[in-house]
Amino acid sequence: MTSANAMRLKLLLKDDPLLRQQLSQCDSPDQVIGIAAKLQLNVCMADLLRMEALMTLTLSDEELDEWYVTPYWKRVLISLGAQPFKP
Question: For 15, what's the count of Cα atoms within 13 Å in the CB-facing half-sphere?
Answer without folding.
Answer: 4
